[in-house]
Amino acid sequence: MNRTKGDEEEYWNSSKFKAFTFDDEDDELSQLKESKRAVNSLRDFVDDDDDDDLERVSWSGEPVGSRTRPGSFQSLSDALSDTPAKSYAPELGRPKGEYRDYSNEWSPSDTVRRLRKGKVCSLERFRSLQDKLQLLEEAVSMHDGNVITAVLIFLKRTLSKEILFRELEVRQVALRHFIHFLKEIGDQKLLLDLFRFLDRTEELALSQYREHLNIQDPEKRKEFLKTCIGLPFSAEDSAHIQDHYTLLERQIIIEANDRHLESAGQTEIFRKHPRKASILNMPLVTTLFYSCFYHYTEPEGTFSSPINLKKTFKIPDKQYVLTALAARAKLRAWHDVDALFTTKNWLGYTKKRAPIGFHRVVEILHKNSAPVQILQEYVNLVEDVDTKLNLATKFKCHDVVIDTCRDLKDRQQLLAYRSKVDKGSAEEEKIDTILSSSQIRWKN
Amino acid sequence: MAAHLSYGRVNLNVLREAVRRELREFLDKCAGSKAIVWDEYLTGPFGLIAQYSLLKEHEVEKMFTLKGSRLPAADVKNIIFFVRPRLELMDVIAENVLSEDRRGPARDFHILFVPRRSLLCEQRLKDLGVLGSFIHREEYSLDLIPFDGDLLSMESEGAFKECYLEGDQTSLYHAAKGLMTLQALYGTIPQIFGKGECARQVANMMIRMKREFTGSQNSIFPVFDNLLLLDRNVDLLTPLATQLTYEGLIDEIYGIQNSYVKLPPEKFAPKKQGEGGKDLPTEAKKLQLNSAEELYAEIRDKNFNAVGSVLSKKAKIISAAFEERHNAKTVGEIKQFVSQLPHMQAARGSLANHTSIAELIKDVTTSEDFFDKLTVEQEFMSGIDTDKVNNYIEDCIAQKHPLIKVLRLVCLQSVCNSGLKQKVLDYYKREILQTYGYEHILTLYNLEKAGLLKPQTGGRNNYPTIRKTLRLWMDDVNEQNPTDISYVYSGYAPLSVRLAQLLSRPGWRSIEEVLRILPGPHFEERQPLPTGLQKKRQPGENRVTLIFFLGGVTFAEIAALRFLSQLEDGGTEYVIATTKLMNGSSWIEALMERPS
Q1: I need a surface site. Which of A299, A378, B148, B162 has the fewest CB within 10 A?
Q2: Which of B:363-402 have CB within 8 Å of A?
Q3: Cβ-Cβ contacts under 8 Å, B173 against chain A
Q4: What number is the average pLDDT over the span A84-109?
Q5: Which residues of B touch A153 (CB under 8 A)?
Q6: Cβ separation of A179 and B166 shorter than 8 Å?
Q7: Residues β-bridged to residue B288
Q8: Among B73-77, B197-201, B275-279, B541-545, where is mean pLDDT lowest?
Q9: CB–CB of B543/B226 below 8 Å?
């Protein structure tokens, strides 16, 4: 360690500097202050001396996690129980001679400067509100988040909530740091109080709602969500929160019921397709899929029926059909798939209609490895001819390709397709028959 | 060791050496044998400035990852924790210290905070009753880490969220400190330009820090001519689009971490005869990507469509070089050939690696879905159909594509429309919540707060004005031999880089109107230099601009800036600094809410 440096520190810290008063800008000492600043900030960049070790003692303050100590901010006297004599005790073999530094009259500005360099400073000396606020303003003007937080912890502990909130409200930068700090230490209660005080209702609501993520037990989570329903969300979000609650409520009922059915081993669907995971906390669409998979035929009156979910959550037709299709296709229940797209008009004629477009139906069926006969049926229902031809080619629905080419009188394409089907297959034969037909007036 | 850092206009090895020295000095303070316990996040960034050999020279005998309960046995005198100042890590450290076996040999504990000591953390250690156990508690101000000859990053993953959501300026303070360190090493930067709230703050902090610094005159001849500070929220658009440069795509698909990428091993299986494809490696292939590799330096910033031809050209050159051996007749010629072998073999290895990577990427870029996604992105960026519900996005939700992908697209649409119509926004929101879970309401709120996803206010879409004035969309883009920065997104010119380009020529005065539309103030500051240090530029000599992205930068933007640096008559060379190297996905991910 560098002896001279140490002496210099001693000099600055203990003798001359004591006499310095904050307001005396013209004083010759202010020049000293300037150069001390320079020396100090220089150290931030270039100084690699280790004399810092001597200075390091504990930084005093109270437990920050007021979750364990609700209301720790009440009063000054509370704070003072943490007496300076105790908390300034040197920890790391600091020479005794340095004690007196801490009884010195550091100005708020110098205190903040020392804090910024990671040195120890007592904040307890600042008792008047004015001093404390000056401390805060100095910290904010330094922009150093670490120091701002340190001062905020001190203010949180030594000011009443009302005064603290009031003063922070007019100091936006400090306020934002305070909110971030409360989030970090998880002081949810004080955070909510603060939002309430500031009348920031949406943040208040979201911040409270966020808590549910940390509740594992489904019943408790449900109860918690129930308390969120009345929170001041925007109208749109309010509806989503209500739905979130209702969904979990449903899931709990369905889960209990199905777990029972599954373990009883009497229900075919659960025996053939054991559940991979619990339905609790799954998204709505996943729940709908589950319900279409395990409870498709149930009457509307049961909580687990797809129709009931559709109505309760106002699931749009498109979304419903898409999900039901995926679930029934996975079970290879082609009859259900067929029924999904069959509508009867008032004369009793049936018609095929798909709100999602038949090209999507085909994609989903293919993903669930539907047999060609089934695929073919739906490829044929695709209206746009180009799309139809593309899908048919992609999924090897030979008949559709061949028939479409014939209808388009596209001889070239048909010829080209002939090379893609198996030699000697029925398809090849069919193509040959068509190509040799004299009935068709080919366009090429 | 890191020669590639000194290839550029500014020798960043100077910075690397400075931080290495600081590390050595700390290690020597803890005399005797040592073990380091690592906050895992830090090992990546540290790897860029020091290898294990450096630590070993300073008596580091063991290294552990920080985790709960008891520390592994190690016969060392010192245990040093290298950690970020985070509360949850303090709890783990306390657990380690408290479960230390008292009967064993006494060991000294130390803690090194990176990049900064935190009073809050020390308070936590005190509450847990272990603060007194540490002999040295220090900070290691690794603010800016040199990644390449022209690239510095703070690798602070939370910076964007802190700055633009929480309004916490801590990372800005670190940015300012990092800039002060740079100025201490490379001289005072005479001119500072900036755009955005955070840029303004950082400039203020720098000016203040400089004032406090007046005791000593910086006598280093300035290397940088300008500093440009740019807020990420001035250009929210660029990171949302899919990067189409080689390096950008590697990052989009596999994620580059601290200049390393992990790739699926199949394509890198050593081709040995008689093994018939068995024993395929199962562990990911890890490669370092930086300009130390000649071939990579050449292709990293090209549009991916221009990479294939370079690779095949290289292949021909290398095989021709190997063929030379047949022409080597005399002993001298053979000797000459042999002496070149190591270099040739390295080149061949490098070529093989990048051919494999290019194949992997091609599998993705030629997929139907990639094409569809790109089409939608390009429509949005060129201003087509941004005001109604998009079919492709709807399909992505219906097919439950990854939420981040969906959010990126929805945000892109919102940004390209200066906010979505309320009806459209509500529709997307509802679909997303129903499909991915209601709890994402929190994430959507964060995106809204960051300005990424919002309702259009005032019924006015400013994007077309911005697009036209700044020429953000170029129809005739040349991917092979680019003439404009728009090649990095195959048509879209990154807004942030366009601002830098226009600043250098003809100056921002020409785009005052657009600057007023973009968020935050724009400004200029001068830092006077003593006459002795004022630069007399030689005719034809380029300026050097340090451009600092506050809130993150993408590889495609870096590529665009390198393109500008290399222009014959560009007049400006760029060194790039940022709070974090990122892409649209890592960005959105950092804004998502998770259980605490």
Answers
A1: A299
A2: 395, 398, 400
A3: 143-145
A4: 45
A5: 119-120, 123
A6: yes
A7: B260
A8: B275-279
A9: yes
Nearest CB partner across the interface for B434, out of A206, A237, A284 = A284
Segment B575-588 mean pLDDT = 97
Residue contact A149–B120, C-beta within 8 A: yes
Hey, what are A42's tokens?
């220089």
Distance CA A134, CA A142 (A): 12
Residue of B nearest to A146 (CA): B118
| Separation between Cα atoms, residue A49 and residue B32, nearest integer Å | 19
Tens-place pLDDT, residues A414-427: 989 998 888 888 88
pLDDT score recorded for residue A186: 87
Mean pLDDT (chain B) is 92
Lookup: tokens for B305: 């469509």
Q: Which residue of A has its CA nearest to B437?
A: A283
Q: How confident is the model at residue B573 (pLDDT cuts 50, 70, 90)?
A: very high
Rounded-to-integer distance, Cα A35 and Cα A32, Å: 5
Task: Give residues with Cβ within 8 angstroms of B510, minimum separation 6.
Answer: B502
Instruction: Determine, for residues B215 and A34 on separate chains, whether the beta-carbon distance falls below 8 Å.
Output: yes
pLDDT value at position B596?
Answer: 66
Q: How far is B181 from chain A (nearest CA, A)?
A: 7
With H, G, I as helix, E, B as strand and everything else as coil, classify residue B131.
Answer: helix
Element (H, E) at A129: helix A129-142
Picking from B215, B438, B445, the nearest residue to A206 by CB comes out as B445
| CA distances for B561 relative to B8, B486, B564, B572, angstroms | 13, 11, 5, 10
Across the interface, do A59 and B123 touch by the CB < 8 Å criterion? Answer: yes
Interface predicted TM-score (ipTM): 0.88
**Mutation choice for B interface testing from A53, A143, A203 by most B CBs within 10 A:** A143
Asked if A146 lies within 8 A of B117 by C-beta distance, the reply is yes
Q: How many CB pairs under 8 A join A and B?
A: 160
Q: Do A241 and B441 touch (CB under 8 A)?
A: yes
For position B459, what pLDDT does the model report?
Answer: 73
State the average pLDDT over residues B402-421. Answer: 97
Residue type (1 letter), B98? L
Instruction: Assess contact for A132 and A159: CB atoms under 8 A.
Output: yes
Residues of B in contact with A186 (CB under 8 A): 596
DSSP per position, B526-583: E----GGG---PPTTPPEEEEEEEET-B-HHHHHHHHHHHH-TT--EEEEEEES-B--
Count of helix runs (H) and strand runs (E) in chain A: 25, 2
Alpha helices, DSSP H only, in B437-522?
441-449, 463-469, 495-504, 512-517
